[in-house]
Fold this protein.
Amino acid sequence: MALVYLDPSVLVAITLGDPRGLQALAILGSQESYTSELSEVECQAGLSFQYATAPGGLPAAEQALNAVLARMQRIQVTSAVLGQARTLVRRHRSGIGLRTLDALHVASCAEVQAELGAGAIEYVTADRRQHQAFMAEGFLGELVG
Amino acid sequence: MSGYHKRSVGIKELKDRASEIVATVERTGRAVSITKNNREVARITPIPTDPQERLVAAGLLRPGPKPSLLSELKLHPLTADASPAIGAILRDREQNGGGR
């Protein structure tokens, strides 16, 4: 059974109750969910923007995000992950225009795969460009939405 | 007592009995140290079978109990449309080392 890496784009959808989040949860099923430590900050940025004009709703959303993150394994940004991300940028920057944050997410999965073997982790994202980046590295996964 | 029951072995013994030593590490789950001139210089350690334990050993996860499944979390929907939040995350990515 593969582990499932959830990108912040689907984590905020799960947190808020968006259909893309429900789609991601259906794909996840009873598998273990993983994300990067970085996701906490990206999710906060998303929620802060979502509630910028109605800040009264932010605490409940943050509480829901904390509950979501508490049920996830969070991959640390180790020197190996950073080194892998640099390699990915070198490999894909000029081709698919790999973005810095995507490199870090894909590198996190690449390090898990290096430890557990090919096919050990799959991804779910709502970000088309990140989906391209994962595919360029041969990962299996789903683009929701 | 045969050598592979020891917690440490010298280089010569390692060369002579590598298969037995590795099999013992795998079976018992206990590490064996390699010594050179009576000084510990390396270690043969078992690789955990549980993915979480392996990732902790590799430094990719912090040690701790396995979290409950995300799919079992009951949340009250806060909005039917998270597009502003998702859009903000995607824009950040474009701006932080991502513009084509």
Summary: DSSP finds seven helices and five strands in chain A. The helical segments of chain A are 8-16, 19-28, 39-50, 58-70, 79-92, 100-116, 128-136. Chain A has a mean pLDDT of 96. The CA atoms of residues 37 and 77 of chain A lie 7 Å apart.
